[in-house]
Every structure is written in structure tokens, then in C-alpha cells.
Design a protein that fits this description.
- The structure is a single chain.
- This protein is mainly α.
- The chain has one domain.
- It has 5 helices and no strands.
- Helix 2 packs parallel to helix 4.
- The protein is globular and about 40 Å long.
- The C terminus is likely disordered.
């Protein structure tokens, strides 16, 4: 088990999303669907990168990490967000979509790595 990746990526995902949304609030970019879409794209990119950084060949190997990242993020939400927003935070469907993306998106990392590695492997044999 890679404990640095286990805790580090959960903290990193939380910190970047917290900073991103704080910036959105600061500049008044919170209304409508666009801020939500931007947030989701950033979260999915981070989650995919986190999954790829593990360098595992199977989604089964990544799943314990992505579940741990969800737990870390949820605990940080409880520590940092609940005191300001209350427990109603967890009644927002956007929070649950984010949590599900943290668990599910990294599972696609091995599949995407194989597809992106295939053309490079083919090109290196042709030269």
C-alpha cells in the first residue's frame, strides 16, 4: 500500500477543489451550470491523474485508494465545511456527484494508459 498516495491525493483533491470554489465565490462565478461543469472537469482530471499516478494495471488495485480518497475528502468536508455550512452540505447533490467521481474516475486510469501507450509503442517499433 502506497500511504503517501493514499492520503496525499485525497488531501490534494480536497485542497484544489476548495481553492477553486473559493476563487469562484470571490469573483462571483457561482451561478448557473458553467461553474459546476468547470469544477467537475477539474475534479475528473485530478482523479484520473491520481489514478494514473498509482501505475496499477487493474481497476481492482485502484479501488481501495479511490475509496480512501473519498473518506479523506468527506472527513475534510466535515472538518472544514460543516462548521460554516452545516450538515445541509450533504443534502446537496453536487457533493455526492463529486464523491462518486472521486471513486469512479480513477478506475479508468489503467484503460486510458494502455490506449495512450499503444501508439507510442507502435511508433517506436517502426523507426
Amino acid at each position: 500500500m502506497k500511504y503517501g498516495a493514499l492520503l496525499g491525493w485525497g488531501i490534494t483533491m480536497y485542497a484544489i477543489m476548495f481553492l477553486l470554489w473559493s476563487g469562484f465565490v470571490l469573483y462571483g462565478f457561482v451561478d448557473g451550470i458553467l461553474p459546476r461543469l468547470v469544477s467537475l472537469v477539474v475534479l475528473m482530471a485530478m482523479a484520473l491523474y491520481a489514478g494514473q499516478s498509482l501505475r496499477f494495471a487493474s481497476w481492482r488495485d485502484i479501488l481501495p485508494y479511490s475509496i480512501a480518497w473519498l473518506i479523506v475528502v468527506a472527513l475534510l468536508d466535515i472538518i472544514f465545511s460543516v462548521p460554516f455550512t452545516g450538515w445541509a452540505l450533504f443534502s446537496d447533490w453536487n457533493v455526492w456527484v463529486g464523491y462518486s467521481l472521486i471513486v469512479l474516475v480513477p478506475l479508468f486510469a489503467p484503460r486510458l494508459r494502455r490506449h495512450s501507450a499503444s501508439p507510442m509503442t507502435r511508433d517506436s517499433h517502426e523507426s
